[in-house]
Design goal:
Blueprint: H1 4-31, H2 44-77, H3 93-121, E1 130-137, E2 140-145, E3 179-181, E4 184-187, E5 191-198, E6 203-207, E7 212-216, E8 222-228, E9 233-239, E10 251-257, H4 259-275
Parallel strand pairs: 1-5, 4-10
Antiparallel strand pairs: 1-2, 2-3, 5-8, 6-7, 6-9, 9-10
This protein binds copper (II) ion.
Copper (II) ion (CU) binds near residues 243 and 247.
């Protein structure tokens, strides 16, 4: 017989599972994609990341089913029966060698495969990549685009002030061309090279659809992040390191657009930039 306490905890459990079901249905739309509930990949390098994830996932499923299958088979086969005496095994060297060597080989193979994918993803950005600086601070992102030269003006963390948010070296002639944005706008099918920085504490550049997760470390410029978006759409750059009380809201919109749309946006930004008096080149222009 159930005590009142037991009934109420059962009810609680039921309502909780009901809530979880409801929550997962609400999340389904944004999280739908594949078997892990990851959003659909949107970059070239993401294909390789998904490849290795899929491989490990299905291999794990196979091992799990094989082990459980053998386990259940023997559980039934050698169940307790009248007049059958149990047999006590004292080990088997051949079997020991097999089940030690096989997983070793599998893990070694995975390590080599993983290393290869890692090297591929971290190869230098292509020469035609669009250079963009992304700087994180408590609690938002600042984005800097180069002028027509395509090269960002020199910058130095020691030059960062409240006016000069990126620590741009004013003696560099390109400093006048750079413009800033609070939205990351990128053309589709073009490599984008991100120069990642932080002005205060450790933040993290995380875009699930891009399969990119990289910490931004104060005092350092992380220059190996690059990607090529494969489809147009709206995404979100969200900080993924608990960086303070406003962390939950540290995000920036990402817009992957066609080359034409990008060119228009860029021309507008550059135009607005040239209207600004010299010395205010780092101000935000909408
Ligand atoms: Cu942050």
């Amino acid at each position: 017989m159930l005590s009142p306490l037991k009934i109420s905890s059962k009810k609680l459990l039921l309502s909780f599972s009901g809530f979880s079901l409801f929550a997962s249905a609400a999340l389904a739309e944004s999280r739908m994609g594949d078997i892990y509930g990851m959003p659909v990949n949107a970059t070239l390098n993401g294909i390789q990341t998904d490849g290795i994830l899929n491989f490990i996932f299905w291999m794990t499923i196979f091992v799990f089913l094989a082990v459980q299958g053998v386990y259940i088979y023997y559980l039934v086969k050698y169940r307790r029966r009248p007049n059958v005496k149990a047999y006590y095994s004292h080990g088997n060297n051949t079997l020991e060698i097999i089940w030690t060597t096989l997983p070793t080989l599998v893990f070694l193979g995975l390590a080599i495969y993983g290393n290869r994918v890692w090297t591929e993803i971290h190869r230098p950005a292509p020469a035609n990549a669009l250079n963009i600086e992304v700087t994180g601070y408590q609690f938002a992102w600042d984005i800097r685009y180069p002028g027509p030269s395509g090269i960002l003006a020199r910058s130095d963390v020691t030059k960062i002030t409240s006016e000069n948010k990126f620590g741009v070296d004013a003696t560099d002639p390109r400093a006048k061309e750079d413009f800033t944005s609070t939205e990351l706008v990128i053309p589709v099918n073009r490599p984008v090279h991100i120069f990642l920085r932080s002005r205060d504490v450790i933040h993290s550049f995380y875009v699930p659809e891009f399969r990119i997760y990289q910490d931004a470390v104060p005092g350092r410029t992380i220059a190996w992040v690059w990607f090529q978006a494969l489809r147009e759409g709206k995404f979100q750059l969200a900080c993924s390191q608990l960086c303070g009380k406003g962390h939950y809201n540290m995000k920036a919109p990402i817009r992957v657009v066609s080359q034409e749309e990008y060119d228009q946006w860029y021309a507008k930004k550059i135009g607005a930039q040239s209207q600004l008096p010299v010395g205010t080149q780092l101000a935000e222009s909408k």
